[in-house]
Design a protein that fits this description.
The protein contains three helices and no strands. Helix 1 runs antiparallel to helix 3. It is mainly alpha-helical.
Length: about 70
């Protein structure tokens, strides 16, 4: 039986997926330079929003299957 304390939260999973593509330094640079490099910022923002939607959907599906909370 799986230990529920071993699961990571939605926010932690979102961060892990985003960090797999963009390092923390890259994220800071993109945020700082969003007016100077709007295309790069928009690509980052779109990726992050898609990750959030995908992770939330996955956690909701898992929670529904388990009959429990959504992991937050």
């Amino acid at each position: 039986m799986e230990n529920k304390n071993m699961r990571i939260s939605q926010d932690q999973m979102i961060a892990k997926v985003i960090n797999a593509k963009y390092s923390i330094d890259e994220q800071i640079a993109l945020l700082r330079q969003k007016d100077a490099k709007p295309e790069e910022y928009e690509a980052f923002y779109a990726f992050a929003e898609q990750v959030k939607a995908d992770v939330k959907r996955e956690y909701a599906t898992y929670a529904a299957a388990e009959g429990g909370s959504d992991g937050e």
